[in-house]
Protein backbone atom coordinates (compact mmCIF):
# COMPACT_ATOMS: atom_id res chain seq x y z
CA UNK A 1 0.00 0.00 0.00
CA UNK A 2 2.93 2.31 0.47
CA UNK A 3 4.34 2.00 -3.02
CA UNK A 4 4.39 5.23 -5.05
CA UNK A 5 1.92 3.75 -7.50
CA UNK A 6 -0.55 2.84 -4.77
CA UNK A 7 -0.18 6.30 -3.22
CA UNK A 8 -0.84 7.94 -6.58
CA UNK A 9 -3.93 5.78 -7.21
CA UNK A 10 -5.19 6.60 -3.72
CA UNK A 11 -4.69 10.30 -4.44
CA UNK A 12 -6.48 10.32 -7.79
CA UNK A 13 -9.32 8.30 -6.26
CA UNK A 14 -9.64 10.83 -3.41
CA UNK A 15 -9.77 13.72 -5.90
CA UNK A 16 -12.31 11.90 -8.10
CA UNK A 17 -14.59 11.31 -5.10
CA UNK A 18 -14.34 14.94 -4.04
CA UNK A 19 -15.02 16.37 -7.51
CA UNK A 20 -17.60 13.75 -8.50
CA UNK A 21 -20.52 16.16 -8.88
CA UNK A 22 -18.61 18.96 -10.61
CA UNK A 23 -18.27 19.78 -14.30
CA UNK A 24 -15.94 22.08 -16.24
CA UNK A 25 -17.42 25.15 -17.88
CA UNK A 26 -16.84 23.94 -21.45
CA UNK A 27 -19.87 23.29 -23.70
CA UNK A 28 -19.46 19.51 -23.24
CA UNK A 29 -19.60 19.81 -19.44
CA UNK A 30 -16.44 17.72 -19.11
CA UNK A 31 -16.13 16.00 -15.70
CA UNK A 32 -14.10 18.30 -13.42
CA UNK A 33 -11.61 15.55 -12.49
CA UNK A 34 -10.21 15.71 -16.06
CA UNK A 35 -8.66 19.05 -15.03
CA UNK A 36 -6.53 17.99 -12.01
CA UNK A 37 -5.50 14.80 -13.83
CA UNK A 38 -4.50 16.93 -16.83
CA UNK A 39 -2.52 19.31 -14.61
CA UNK A 40 -0.60 16.39 -13.10
CA UNK A 41 -0.02 15.07 -16.63
CA UNK A 42 1.47 18.38 -17.80
CA UNK A 43 3.95 18.14 -14.93
CA UNK A 44 4.84 14.49 -15.49
CA UNK A 45 4.78 14.28 -19.30
CA UNK A 46 5.83 17.78 -20.33
CA UNK A 47 7.72 18.97 -17.24
CA UNK A 48 9.47 15.68 -16.51
CA UNK A 49 8.47 16.02 -12.86
CA UNK A 50 8.89 12.77 -10.91
CA UNK A 51 8.46 14.14 -7.39
CA UNK A 52 5.39 12.24 -6.24
CA UNK A 53 4.38 14.90 -3.72
CA UNK A 54 4.21 17.53 -6.45
CA UNK A 55 2.13 15.17 -8.62
CA UNK A 56 -0.16 14.46 -5.66
CA UNK A 57 -0.55 18.17 -4.97
CA UNK A 58 -1.45 18.70 -8.64
CA UNK A 59 -4.17 16.03 -8.39
CA UNK A 60 -5.49 17.61 -5.19
CA UNK A 61 -4.90 21.29 -6.01
CA UNK A 62 -8.59 22.30 -6.29
CA UNK A 63 -10.04 20.10 -3.53
CA UNK A 64 -9.80 22.66 -0.72
CA UNK A 65 -10.87 25.61 -2.88
CA UNK A 66 -13.74 23.92 -4.71
CA UNK A 67 -14.98 21.01 -2.55
CA UNK A 68 -15.70 20.34 1.14
CA UNK A 69 -12.12 19.11 1.75
CA UNK A 70 -10.30 20.70 4.69
CA UNK A 71 -6.53 21.26 4.93
CA UNK A 72 -6.52 19.02 8.03
CA UNK A 73 -8.14 16.23 6.05
CA UNK A 74 -5.46 16.46 3.36
CA UNK A 75 -2.75 16.48 5.98
CA UNK A 76 -4.16 13.38 7.69
CA UNK A 77 -4.55 11.52 4.39
CA UNK A 78 -1.46 12.62 2.47
CA UNK A 79 0.92 14.29 4.92
CA UNK A 80 2.04 17.83 5.68
CA UNK A 81 4.15 18.38 2.56
CA UNK A 82 1.36 17.63 0.08
CA UNK A 83 -1.20 19.51 2.18
CA UNK A 84 1.19 22.48 2.37
CA UNK A 85 1.65 22.71 -1.41
CA UNK A 86 -2.13 22.56 -1.92
CA UNK A 87 -2.58 25.28 0.69
CA UNK A 88 -0.10 27.52 -1.13
CA UNK A 89 -2.13 27.33 -4.35
CA UNK A 90 -5.52 27.69 -2.66
CA UNK A 91 -7.34 31.03 -2.86
CA UNK A 92 -9.54 32.33 -0.04
CA UNK A 93 -12.98 32.09 -1.61
CA UNK A 94 -14.48 34.45 0.96
CA UNK A 95 -12.63 37.31 -0.78
CA UNK A 96 -13.75 39.05 -3.96
CA UNK A 97 -12.37 37.78 -7.26
CA UNK A 98 -10.42 41.00 -7.70
CA UNK A 99 -8.86 40.69 -4.25
CA UNK A 100 -7.99 37.01 -4.86
CA UNK A 101 -6.21 37.96 -8.10
CA UNK A 102 -4.36 40.74 -6.31
CA UNK A 103 -3.19 38.36 -3.59
CA UNK A 104 -2.10 35.79 -6.22
CA UNK A 105 0.15 38.44 -7.73
CA UNK A 106 1.48 39.43 -4.32
CA UNK A 107 2.15 35.86 -3.13
CA UNK A 108 3.35 34.12 -6.31
CA UNK A 109 7.02 35.19 -6.16
CA UNK A 110 7.26 33.94 -2.56
CA UNK A 111 5.69 30.51 -3.17
CA UNK A 112 7.77 27.36 -2.89
CA UNK A 113 9.20 25.91 -6.10
CA UNK A 114 6.75 23.00 -5.79
CA UNK A 115 3.74 25.33 -5.52
CA UNK A 116 4.94 27.36 -8.52
CA UNK A 117 5.11 24.19 -10.61
CA UNK A 118 1.52 23.28 -9.72
CA UNK A 119 0.26 26.84 -10.23
CA UNK A 120 1.88 27.24 -13.64
CA UNK A 121 0.65 23.83 -14.84
CA UNK A 122 -2.83 24.78 -13.59
CA UNK A 123 -2.76 28.07 -15.51
CA UNK A 124 -1.33 26.42 -18.62
CA UNK A 125 -4.10 23.80 -18.60
CA UNK A 126 -6.78 26.49 -18.22
CA UNK A 127 -5.28 28.64 -20.98
CA UNK A 128 -5.17 25.69 -23.36
CA UNK A 129 -8.79 25.00 -22.49
CA UNK A 130 -9.66 28.63 -23.17
CA UNK A 131 -7.88 28.38 -26.52
CA UNK A 132 -9.69 25.11 -27.33
CA UNK A 133 -13.22 26.31 -26.68
CA UNK A 134 -15.30 29.16 -25.35
CA UNK A 135 -16.56 28.59 -21.79
CA UNK A 136 -20.35 28.57 -21.56
CA UNK A 137 -21.69 32.09 -21.16
CA UNK A 138 -18.32 33.78 -21.51
CA UNK A 139 -16.23 35.69 -24.04
CA UNK A 140 -16.29 35.58 -27.81
CA UNK A 141 -13.66 33.45 -29.51
CA UNK A 142 -11.43 36.36 -30.46
CA UNK A 143 -11.42 37.59 -26.88
CA UNK A 144 -10.29 34.13 -25.75
CA UNK A 145 -7.20 34.38 -27.94
CA UNK A 146 -6.43 37.82 -26.55
CA UNK A 147 -6.82 36.52 -23.00
CA UNK A 148 -4.68 33.48 -23.77
CA UNK A 149 -1.78 35.65 -24.81
CA UNK A 150 -2.18 38.21 -22.04
CA UNK A 151 -2.69 35.78 -19.19
CA UNK A 152 0.28 33.63 -20.08
CA UNK A 153 2.51 36.69 -20.02
CA UNK A 154 0.84 37.75 -16.78
CA UNK A 155 1.42 34.44 -15.01
CA UNK A 156 4.98 34.21 -16.26
CA UNK A 157 5.74 37.67 -14.96
CA UNK A 158 4.28 37.20 -11.52
CA UNK A 159 6.00 33.88 -10.83
CA UNK A 160 9.26 35.61 -11.75
CA UNK A 161 8.42 38.35 -9.29
CA UNK A 162 8.12 40.90 -12.09
CA UNK A 163 5.41 43.46 -12.57
CA UNK A 164 2.29 41.91 -14.10
CA UNK A 165 1.32 45.29 -15.48
CA UNK A 166 3.19 45.80 -18.73
CA UNK A 167 1.10 43.42 -20.85
CA UNK A 168 -1.91 45.65 -20.33
CA UNK A 169 -0.38 48.16 -22.72
CA UNK A 170 -0.14 45.61 -25.54
MN1 LIG B 1 -7.21 24.30 -11.13
TrEMBL record:
Cofactor: Mn(2+)
EC number: 3.1.7.2
Domain HD: start-end pairs: 32-127
The reaction(s) this protein catalyses: guanosine 3',5'-bis(diphosphate) + H2O = GDP + diphosphate + H(+)
GO MF, one annotated term: metal ion binding
Enzymatic class: hydrolase
Keywords linked to the UniProt accession: Hydrolase, Manganese, Metal-binding
The keyword Magnesium appears for this protein: no
UniProt entry tagged with the keyword rRNA-binding: no
Similarity annotation: Belongs to the MESH1 family.
PANTHER family with a match to the protein in the record: GUANOSINE-3',5'-BIS(DIPHOSPHATE) 3'-PYROPHOSPHOHYDROLASE MESH1 (PTHR46246:SF1)
General function of this protein: ppGpp hydrolyzing enzyme involved in starvation response.
Protein name: Guanosine-3',5'-bis(diphosphate) 3'-pyrophosphohydrolase MESH1
Organism for this UniProt entry: Sphaeramia orbicularis (orbiculate cardinalfish)
Amino acid sequence: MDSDLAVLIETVNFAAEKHKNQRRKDPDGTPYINHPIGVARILSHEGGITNIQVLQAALLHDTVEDTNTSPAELQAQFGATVAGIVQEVTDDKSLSKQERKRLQVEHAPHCSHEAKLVKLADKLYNLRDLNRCTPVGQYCHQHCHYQYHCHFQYQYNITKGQSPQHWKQQ
